[in-house]
Design goal:
386 residues, alpha/beta
Length: 386
Amino acid sequence: MSASVATFSFPTTTLFGPGTIAELPGRLRELGLRRPLVVTDGGLLGTEAYALLEQALDPARKGKDWLVFSEVHPNPTEQDVILGAQAFQAGRCDAVIAFGGGSALDVGKAIRLLLKRPGFKLAEFDYRDDWSGLVPCVCIPTTAGTGSEVGRSSVIILESTQRKAVLFHPALLAKLVILDPELTRALPAKLTAATGADAFTHCLESFTSPSFHPLCDGVALEGIHLIVDALPRAFRDGGDIDARGKMLVAAVMGAVAFQKDLGATHALAHPLSSLCGMHHGLANALCLPFVMRFNAGRKPGLYRRIGVACGLDVLQKSDQEADRIAIDFVSKFFLDLGLKPGLRAYGVKESQVDSLAGQAFEDSCHQTNPVPVTAADLRELYAQAL
C-alpha cells in the first residue's frame, strides 16, 4: 500500500442493454423532470441514434416538451458551455440530457455550473467550493470511448487560456446513465476505432498509475480484456450489437478506473486536441506505444499484467520480453484498426513540438505516470511520435 487513506466511489445508476433508450421518459418522470434540454452536437441531428432519442421522448408526435442545444464543438469550448446555459434558461428547462460523444457529455455536465452561478468564469472553478444542488443530468453516450457519462469531471477549452482544463467535482456526476448499444451501431468505423482507443488508453494508464486503488485495477484489466475482444468486431461490423454493448461497458469501466489517475499519454494527448484539433482518442492511440516504451525502459515488467489481459503468453517471459510483447501487441492492435502512427500524417508540424511539450508538462496527468517525466522527456516523446 502506498497510501494510508484512500477513497473508493462507484455511485452512478446505469441502465444497460439494447432498447433501453425507451425507458428514458419513465425515468424522467420518476425524477420529477418535465422539460429537459438535450445537449448534443449538430452532426448527430440527422442520425439513427438521434431518431431513436426523438422517438423515446415524443413517441406519439404530440409536440416537444423538450428543447435541443446542438452547438457543441468536437473539442468543447467555454463558449459552448455559456451558450448551452443560456439556452437552458431561455427554455425554462429543468434538466439536462447530455446526448452524444464525450464532447456533448462534458458540455452537458458543465452547463450546470453556470446555471448555479450565472456569469461564472470556468477558469475560476475550484473543486473545494460548494457545488451541491446542480440541476439533474442524464447522460446517454452514442460512442464508446471517453466514459464521461460516469465521470466526475468535464474537459473544456477555457476562453482565457485556450487550453483544456479538467473541471472536477463529484457533484458533476449524472443522476442516470443509459447505455444502449443500438445508439452506437451506425457509428463509422473510423470513429469506432478512435473512441475505442481512448477507452483502451484509459484502462491501461489507470492500471499502471502508481496511485493505490485495487478496485480500479481490477476494473481496468477487465476493461482491457473486453476491448481486445470487442473493438475489432465493432470496427469490422457496426451492427454487431454484442460487440457494441461490450464496448459501451468497457468505456464506462475505463472512466471508473481513471478515478485512480492517468499518465503521460494523456498529458501528451490533451495539447494535440487544443492546439492541433486532433480527436482525443486518436491522439492517445498515436502517443501510447511511445510512452509505453519510455516507461518500460525505466520500470521493466510494468506491462506484464496488461499483456495477460490482452490474452498474451507473457507469464513466463522476462520482464523486458513481457513488456516488448505487450507493446508490440498494442501497436499492431491500433494499426489493424486503421490508426496508423505518425503525427505528421494528421497535420502536426515539427514547429509545434515546443508549444505542445510546454502544455503537456503543465498538464497534471503526467504527475501520476508510473515513472517521472521531465519537460524534455515529453518533447522527445512528441519528436518520436512525429
